[in-house]
Amino acid sequence: MTPDSGGVNVGAVFRSEYGRAVSVLTGVLGDIDLAEDAVQAAFEIAIQRWPQDGAPPSPAGWIITTARRQAIDRIRREQKRDDKESAAQQLIEQQQPEPEEVHAVRDDRLRMFFTCCHPALAPAAQTALTLRILGGLSTAEIARSFITSEPTIAQRIVRAKAKIRDARIPFRIPDDAELPDRLDGVLRAVYLIFTEAHLATAGDEAMRDGLAAEAIRLARLLRELMPDEPEVTGLLALLLLTHARRPARLDEAGELVPLDQQDRALWDQDLIAEGHDLVRACLRRNHPGSYQIQAAIAAVHTDAPAFTETDWSQIVALHDQLAARDRSPVVALHRAIAIGERDGAVAGLAALEPLADDRTMQRYAVFHAARARLLTLLGRMAEADASYERAIGLTGNSAERRALQRRRSEGMP
């Protein structure tokens, strides 16, 4: 995408509106592939026309309208399926309004979430498809997020869309009785989209505020839809408490500022207050889950007036609860980091040691950066340098890479 066309950043419009446009077109056409192709064609036209004609008053509306026309033209050319021809005719005539869905939340993107996260799809495919369609991420970016290869992600997405088509998975929000079984995949997808926004996996942009806002918006919608599900509340609390630190995460030069150096006076106190209220609501329910525990950890961080005053004992205890539910190496890594802060670098390295041979951790920049920090604290600079080198090589985001290079060159833990 060209960075600027007719006074509008087309790349930014793509990031913020791609998912909505595909969702709207899918709702009308009933075909994700056709919707995606039409939306991509619309953005290509925008790149060509906006510099000459000027940006439209509503870039998002222009994209959706143009995509609809592209879909109609393609259906007319193919004319292979009667149902597609009928759909095209309905679009052309625009006489019959779409049937109104009677449900607590009417939102095309939310319907798309539940479609992408249908239990007929494997969990990894659910998240990859959601990141592609609703997050607007490239296959390469999703591969980095999954810590896996680009061809693997491409195959997952193709197979997932084929499954939706062949199994005729409906484009709708499930009935109330179906919602609990479908929730895990949706929560995971929202969480991963926010994670991508909080620190982009690739490119020059450290954070993607529009994507973060979309993840938070969707989390709010999910809570409106399922107010009695504590994990929905926990996820929203986690996103709010994490996003509250956003104003302090970049310095005046646009460089990333690590948590231990952030000016906490810049943190968004309104988001923190809302997040704390949600965490307390979860505690009253007394049905802890992984997102609620992560939100509680974030709440402890925001309670501390300074990094040195963080209650690491409480954070380690919460990580112990999380590890009992989720035995993934990423959870073990963050528990080891917390142990290092509570008990010192030697204890932290000892907690990291069982992960050293894990293949996922060997490809995970955060593991090597954490190890480099602990080794630096112990004065083992040659080993720390090697770990920093490994972390830098695995980091796709330019801002994160510069932050690691700065710590390495300055001998900072």
Overall number of strands: 0
Report the radius of gyration as a whole number of Å.
23 Å
Per CATH, the class of the domain at 320-413 reads Mainly Alpha
Q: Bin the helical content.
A: 55-70%
Q: What is the number of helical segments per DSSP (H or I, 4+ residues)?
A: 20
User: Termini separation (Å)?
Assistant: 38 Å
Mean pLDDT across every amino acid position: 86
Shape: globular
Order of helices and strands: HHHHHHHHHHHHHHHHHHHH
Structural class: mainly alpha
Describe, in short, the structure shown.
The chain is mainly α and 413 residues long. It is built from 20 helices and no strands. The radius of gyration is 23 Å and the shape is globular.
What report would you give on this structure?
Residues 116-164 form the RNA polymerase sigma factor 70 region 4 type domain. GO terms for molecular function: DNA binding; sigma factor activity. By secondary structure, the protein is an all-alpha fold. Among the domains are: 10-93, Rna Polymerase Sigma Factor, Chain: A, CATH 1.10.1740; 320-413, Tetratricopeptide repeat domain (Serine Threonine Protein Phosphatase 5, Tetratricopeptide repeat), CATH 1.25.40.10. 68% of the residues lie in helices and 0% in strands. The protein has 20 helices and no strands. The longest helix is centred in the first third of the chain and has 22 residues, at 32-53. The two termini are 38 Å apart. The model is unreliable at 92-106 (pLDDT under 50).
